[in-house]
Amino acid sequence: MRALLVDRSLPGGLRVGEAPDPVPAPDQALVRVTATSLNHGEVKYGIAEAPEGTVLGWDAAGVVVQAPADGSGPAIGTPVVTLGDGGGWAELRAVHTAYIGVAPEHADLGAISTVPVAGATSLRALDRIGPSLGRRIMITGATGGVGRYAVQLAGMGGAHVTAVTGDPAAYGESLRTLGAHEVVSHPRDASGHYDGVLDLVGGGQLVDAFDMLGEGGTLVAVGHATRDGESFPDQALWGGPGRNDRSLATFHLMHFRGLGRDLTWLAGQVAQGTLDPQIFWRGPWEDVADAVSALLERRLHGKAVIEFG
């Protein structure tokens, strides 16, 4: 099969080449991939750290060509969206049925391919905070793929949403269109206290965002874009009036159960137009170096979709 292989001698660190067809386990479906969406983490760190010739890729959408032998997954011909810790940047992908969502018939699978990491991470992070109706929720790193899904989902849940971005003048209008009520450049520029924070940045911004939590509030550390450590000043984690019972939560998406249900629901919302996948780059895999460059240079705020032809 053809695949995008790690090759750090080339611009973007990837080349189109041949790889062995995957052999699915009894609880895996074999999917012919139509499209994949790139995530900043796998592009920045995966390509740099993986052995040469590796097939990476967390997100992929396509059509089932071989149903799981144990009968646990969708039938042949079913359009699906899939999540895995690799293998998505190829014509064929073997994927466990727990990480498969069913897409609506005739849906745009390029748009659906943006759902797994960005959409499911946002959904699970908001679920960890709790009911959104009437709550105040802050989202840092809001212009990225995860952030844009999170702004929409929090707004759909009835929250007052504050989006944090390094350039409110450039991105404020688009974030407000997605559902943000307030757009600021730093957590400390926001007013009041928050019931929940989705932090996609890490480092000092996470520390400052935690300080914005009110009583009973939860910060979910979703991403670590800065790769800086977090150093909390003295008394930052103390309780007290208005600061009692605050919590900081972390998770790894692939360790959750029931993701297939999440992926199915999210795919339906994208297909209906209720959720906007915010695709800012879309093209064939021969042009993947352009997409990788745009992501690494932070010129692309949103999702990049690679289509397999």
UniProtKB/TrEMBL annotation:
What are the TM regions of this chain, as residue ranges? none
Q: Which Pfam families match?
A: ADH_N (PF08240), ADH_zinc_N_2 (PF13602)
Q: Which CDD domains does this one have?
A: MDR4
Q: Which InterPro entries does the record match to this protein?
A: ADH-like_N, ER, GroES-like_sf, NAD(P)-bd_dom_sf, Zn-ADH-like_protein
The residues covered by the Enoyl reductase (ER) domain are: 9-306
Query: What Gene3D superfamilies does this protein's entry cite?
Result: Medium-chain alcohol dehydrogenases, catalytic domain, NAD(P)-binding Rossmann-like Domain
Provide the GO MF annotations for this entry. Answer: oxidoreductase activity
Q: This chain belongs to which protein, by name?
A: NADPH:quinone reductase
Q: Which organism is it from?
A: Sinosporangium album
